[in-house]
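Exam revision sheet. Question 4 asks you to relate a sequence to its structure. Input first:
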Amino acid sequence: MDLDAATAAPTSNLPRSIALQGTTNFRDLGGYTGADGRSVRWRHLFRSDHLAGLSQGDLQALQALNVGRAVDFRGVEERVANGYDWPFLTQHALTIEPTVVQRAFAMIHQGHKLTADDTVGLMQDTYRGFVVDNAERFATLFRMLLESDQPLVFHCTAGKDRTGWAAALILLALGVSRDVVRDDYLLTNQLYSRPPELAAKAAQTVPQDILDVLWRVQMPFLDSAFALAEARYGTMDRYLAEALGVGTAERAQLARMYLEG
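Answer key, structure tokens:
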């Protein structure tokens, strides 16, 4: 399925990508077909890059969308560097440190020759870490979703890796097909724009082919997480139930809260 980043489902004229001055990757998970052919509810579940640069107009737009909760997957230093405190938005820090990416930059700065293939492997390590080492953070996200259907945005720095895995888990739990989950994941490559000052600084010391791996998403990243979860638990359904506490009853409740009809 080819998903236009600016277009929702054929049955709705709501935009999937929300144009904000302070983000480039803020988008709605609504409209996808989930369990029993029911669509994911629009304007309840949002994914994004970080929210520190929101303008006054952006904040008004979020308030108009009734977004009152933000789940922040960034590491401690990332939050210090780009913190935010918007009065109407309750922030929940579910810290996942970007250790593998930090290791890649450290290796380059120490003079190691890092290839694009090596970097793909490091990113796959990152995603495998989401599955096991950071399972409790994603389990907490699901507990929050089950507590209330107040519109929520979850994000990291670029809204692509930690956020991408979270979005995949939510959509799968709602019965969205794996193919559609993958297409939603890849929309980041159409939407996310690196801050020019960050891109310029990184380009001074890091080869462009390495940056292209670090700053974009590839299916081998997401598939490495799926593969580990299925190797450990047999199926994604069992992974959701046993690792994240999202079993049959919880998925039925999520469907009642986040699917139409």
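Marking note for examiners. The mean pLDDT is 91.
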